[in-house]
Amino acid sequence: MSSHEGVRSAVRAASGETRTRSKDRREQLLDAADRVIQARGSGVSMNDIAAEAGITKPILYRHFGDKGGLYQALADRYISMLRERLSAALLTRGGLRARTRATIDAYLTAIEEQPQVYRFLVQRAAVEDPGVAGEVANFVRRFGDDLAVGLLAEKQLSGLTKRQAQIRANAIAGMVQQTGDWWLDRSDVNRAKVVAELSSLLLDGLLG
Q1: Per-residue pLDDT averaged across 184-194, rounded?
Q2: What is the DSSP letter of 187?
Q3: How confident is the model at residue 121, as a pLDDT?
């Protein structure tokens, strides 16, 4: 290896290490943001998040560009986690009824476990930043797409056309999201009751 090749190799290695450290640092800052949001609610300030991370607000922005960049990074993290849970629920064994209940319960459980995170994402970040609003809308559409694939694979719905599956799946995705928004501020309503009622309504429509 020539001296020039050695230098280039060292530069590439150093660049890779820098990117890895930067990515790790971003994850640490997102962890801090998650902690303070869950502890103090969706109204936390950027100063609150920076203080939790042990840095100043300008340094926080240096890693994300601006407030919108931080919002979008948080949205991407939350939505990815929720999609994983819903995808797993869609693979539940036991037939259509079991999968319907499991999918609705997975969505509502995510809200119940992290209500402040959900409020931050839907009621604040999506309102303040168009990029986050787009992320949320895209999530609902992707959820609808995943549901449509699942509906087409159901033996009990063998007569369903692709277009029918798409229409019904997107209606279901919107219904589940809207019900979750309503239920978020109804602490007196048991999650199991919401799952049972919504499952019954959806199954009546799908199998009726």
Answers
A1: 92
A2: T
A3: 87
Beta-carbon contacts of residue 25 (< 8 Å; ≥ 6 apart): 63
Q: How far apart are CA 19 and CA 44, in angstroms?
A: 29
Same domain assignment for residues 51 and 124: no
Q: Can you give the pLDDT at residue 123?
A: 83
123: Cβ–Cβ under 8 A, 6 or more apart, which residues? 42
Dump the DSSP string for 13-56: HHHHHHHHHHHHHHHHHHHHHHHHHHHH-TT--HHHHHHHHTS-
186 and 118 fall within a common domain: yes
Average pLDDT, the chain: 88
Q: Mean pLDDT over residues 88-104, rounded?
A: 93
The gap from C-alpha 158 to its chain's centroid, in whole angstroms, comes to 31
Q: pLDDT confidence of 14, banded at 50, 70, 90?
A: very low
Distance between CA atoms of 126 and 142, rounded to whole angstroms?
A: 17
What is the average per-residue pLDDT within 186-190? 91
Q: In the listed set 44, 65, 86, which residue is the last one of a domain according to the structure?
A: 65
CA 30 to chain centre: 14
Cβ neighbours, 10 Å, residue 90: 19
- Say whether both 183 and 202 belong to one domain: yes
Number of domains in the chain: 2
